[in-house]
Structure formats: structure tokens, C-alpha cells
Amino acid sequence: MAFILFLCFLYIQLAVVITQVTWENCGSDLNDIKLLNLTVNPHPIVAPGPVSINITIYTNQNLTSPLKAILSLRKKTFIGYVTVPCFTIGSCIYNDLCTLCSQCNCPMKAGEHTIDLPITIDSQSWMLAGSYQAQIDLETSPKQKGCAKINNISIKTNK
Ligand SMILES: *[C@@H]1O[C@H](CO)[C@@H](O)[C@H](O)[C@H]1NC(C)=O
Ligand SMILES: *[C@@H]1O[C@H](CO)[C@@H](O)[C@H](O)[C@H]1NC(C)=O
Ligand SMILES: *[C@@H]1O[C@H](CO)[C@@H](O)[C@H](O)[C@H]1NC(C)=O
Ligand SMILES: *[C@@H]1O[C@H](CO)[C@@H](O)[C@H](O)[C@H]1NC(C)=O
């Protein structure tokens, strides 16, 4: 019996580790920018190392630059989710994603766009390891908006 429970436990652990991140749109249903798909490779993310984030978005309008992004990253701890300040990875404000992302093809035309964002986490810190959730708020100056929540982001360190 104990052994079977142990196997179940092992299975749950494995199932948690292999899942992809989960995501949802947030904010208003009337938002102009919607997330259609998001995958993180590898997942769990291994730090330090490269990560590729594949994002498909749909926008019902031509987006005007600047495309401001507010990222809020929270780490799961024993007292609940705690906001991670803006370091290598963290809760940062990007005044214009267009200037950071050559593949974004700004100004973005109305329609579907798939963007592959290659990121390198160079921090060696073992403290990065853990489970995270993120929220990204997008806004252009004429108030075109988007909001997405990403759950179950998992980071391992290769130590
Ligand atoms: C999302 O992207 C992944 C990887 O690119 C792909 O396998 C999957 O089919 C996509 N899902 C949808 C709903 O487009
Ligand atoms: C986007 O801009 C193009 C010209 O660059 C225009 O033809 C099109 O109608 C615009 N679409 C929307 C939804 O405003
Ligand atoms: C990621 O997005 C790019 C488009 O920039 C696409 O060509 C590629 O197949 C995607 N990769 C995965 C793993 O989904
Ligand atoms: C994913 O995140 C949600 C919300 O934070 C949580 O309820 C759920 O248990 C998580 N799923 C896994 C597989 O960790």
C-alpha cells in the first residue's frame, strides 16, 4: 500500500514537471491584443541557459509604437506568491518592446503574429529554482491593450 502511494506520488511529481506552462488572457474581453498560444522551451527552464518563448498573438488593430509592457513576476514560496523585483528576471517595465524585439515587426499589423523570443538566463543563482507565475500588461499610447497571465512556470538550476 505504502509502495503504491509512493508510486502515485512519484507519478504526480513527474506529471507536474513535464507540464507546459498554462496561460490565460486577463483584463477586459474588449482588449485589442489577445494571446492565442504560448510555449516555453525547454520547460522546466534550466538556469543558466537559453530559453525560447514562442508566442502567438492576435491583434484586431494595427498597433502603434511604443508598445509598453509591464511584467510582473511572482515566485511561489512557503508564504504564498511573492513579487520578484526587476533583476536578471523579475518584474520589469519595458517602455517599448519594439526597440527590444527585432522580430516583432513593429508597427504590428492587425492579425496573427508568431514571435519566437530567445532569452538567455545567465544567473548562476540556485535561488532562481522554483515555481513562478507572471502577468504581462501591454499598452500602446492610444490605449490599445492586452493582458496575459502565465502560470506554472518552472525553473530548475543545473547544479
Ligand atoms: C501552440 O504551439 C505549440 C508549439 O509551437 C503547438 O504544438 C501547438 O499545436 C499550438 N497550439 C495551438 C492551439 O495553436
Ligand atoms: C492597417 O494598416 C493598413 C495599411 O498599412 C490598412 O490597409 C488597414 O486597413 C489597417 N487595418 C486596420 C484594422 O486598421
Ligand atoms: C516559434 O515561432 C517561430 C516563428 O517565429 C516558428 O517558426 C517556430 O516554428 C516556432 N517554434 C516552436 C517550437 O513552436
Ligand atoms: C498551475 O497554477 C495554478 C494557479 O496558480 C494552480 O492552481 C495549479 O495547481 C498549477 N498546476 C500545476 C500542475 O502545478
Task: Please outline the helices and strands.
Blueprint: H1 2-18, E1 22-25, E2 33-41, E3 45-47, E4 49-59, E5 67-77, E6 80-83, E7 93-94, H2 97-100, E8 111-121, E9 130-140, E10 145-157
Parallel strand pairs: 3-10
Antiparallel strand pairs: 1-10, 2-4, 4-8, 5-6, 5-7, 5-9, 9-10
Care to describe what's here?
- One of its GO terms (molecular function) is enzyme activator activity.
- It comes from Rotaria socialis.
- Keywords: Signal.
- The chain has a single domain, classed as Ganglioside GM2 activator (Ganglioside M2 Activator Protein, Chain: A, Distorted Sandwich), CATH 2.70.220.
- The chain is 13% helix and 50% strand.
- It has two helices and ten strands, in the order αβββββββαβββ.
- The strands form two sheets. Strands 1, 3, 5, 6, 7, 9 and 10 form a seven-stranded mixed sheet that branches. The chain has a three-stranded antiparallel sheet with strand order 2-4-8, with no helix packed on it.
- β5 and β6 form a beta hairpin.
- The radius of gyration is 17 Å and the shape is globular.
- The protein binds 2-acetamido-2-deoxy-beta-D-glucopyranose (NAG) (4 copies).
- The site of one 2-acetamido-2-deoxy-beta-D-glucopyranose (NAG) has 3 residues, from β2.
- One 2-acetamido-2-deoxy-beta-D-glucopyranose binds next to β10.
